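STRUCTURE:
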């Protein structure tokens, strides 16, 4: 058994290779918190959190370290650790920054157990690492930018692409979609919650003619009733889920019939522990599961998710990793190394430390 010696957190802000425009603004960097769960036995479990904005790097780092202090000397048993931290947060609440910190510790704990067992995380969870269908996730770049993104997507080995949309005119959305389809790619679109329900239904009915794999978050993420109205009105599948905080949110969305497929964010859904619970709920309803961000650990989790659909690929954390995940012929190659396969490129980490 492993015993927790220390949980350390470091903040880095990694510039993106190119801006990532969305209907809600541009993403220019990846603000990450790197977590190292060190054990008395010399095994280290690793994970990272994506903070969306650099302004919360400091509080998230402090939360991880403060929660980690509660676990010093505890056995690295992820379910027990998760239960202990959730109990401490019952009055504060288990969402937002505190929920992110708990999920980061949970992921690092599962990684440590897998490393100690000399097994890939997928194998520890009862499956095996396997190639997972993946798509290239791109921003909202207009028609010419979409053509360039499509060319890059093919060069990187993908056969599917997702665009951010929500242009002033739906014709601009269609032009971006057709630029990718002309390149032979399968296409999804993401509105990033930018439409009201009436507009979402109107645009969705026009996009029904475009052969999309899904339309993602057309309206406000927490409006499950609104998403249900949109999903019922459209032929194209409606995707949502990246902004669900824990399996409880997913249960509410499924009860409302809010969507046709689910996208789980391993950080927001509650780490590996939360993902396993949420995936079981989705499978019980016949709902297909894709991932949001965190491709390295998500590949392992999708490998053991029977209703797995797609892995979302972003290279935002790649610069600080020794071995970023590889994609070949549209398939993400789940690492066969022990654990989730995370190892820091310390030279780059030092460059971007906050």
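SEQUENCE:
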């Amino acid at each position: 058994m492993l015993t927790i010696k220390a949980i350390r957190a470091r903040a880095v802000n990694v510039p993106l290779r190119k801006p990532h425009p969305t209907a809600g603004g541009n993403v220019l960097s990846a603000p990450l918190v790197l977590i190292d769960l060190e054990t008395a036995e010399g095994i280290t479990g690793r994970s990272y959190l994506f903070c969306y904005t650099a302004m919360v790097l400091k509080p998230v780092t402090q939360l991880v370290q403060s929660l980690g202090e509660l676990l010093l000397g505890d056995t690295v048993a992820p379910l027990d650790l998760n239960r202990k931290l959730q109990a401490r947060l019952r009055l504060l609440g288990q969402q937002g920054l505190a929920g992110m910190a708990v999920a980061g510790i949970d992921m690092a704990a599962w990684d440590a157990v897998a490393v100690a067992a000399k097994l890939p995380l997928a194998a520890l969870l009862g499956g095996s690492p396997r190639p997972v269908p993946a798509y290239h996730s791109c921003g909202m770049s207009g028609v010419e930018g979409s053509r360039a993104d499509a060319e890059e997507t093919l060069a990187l080995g993908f056969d599917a692409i997702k665009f951010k949309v929500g242009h002033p005119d739906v014709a601009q959305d269609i032009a971006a979609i057709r630029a990718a389809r002309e390149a032979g790619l399968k296409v999804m679109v993401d509105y990033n919650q930018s439409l009201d329900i009436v507009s979402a239904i109107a645009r969705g009915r026009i996009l029904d003619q475009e052969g999309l794999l899904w339309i993602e978050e057309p309206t406000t993420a927490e409006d499950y009733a609104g998403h249900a109205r949109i999903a019922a009105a459209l032929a194209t599948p409606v995707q949502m889920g990246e902004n669900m905080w824990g399996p409880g949110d997913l249960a509410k969305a499924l009860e409302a019939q809010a969507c046709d497929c689910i996208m789980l964010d391993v950080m927001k859904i509650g780490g590996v522990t939360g993902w396993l619970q949420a995936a079981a709920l989705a499978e019980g309803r016949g709902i297909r599961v894709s991932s949001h961000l965190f491709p390295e650990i998500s590949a392992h989790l999708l490998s053991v998710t029977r209703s797995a659909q797609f892995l979302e690929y972003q290279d935002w954390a790649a610069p600080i990793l020794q071995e970023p995940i590889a994609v070949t012929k549209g398939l993400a190659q789940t690492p066969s190394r022990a654990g989730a396969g995370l190892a820091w490129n310390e030279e780059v980490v030092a460059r971007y430390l906050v």
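REMARK: The radius of gyration is 20 Å.
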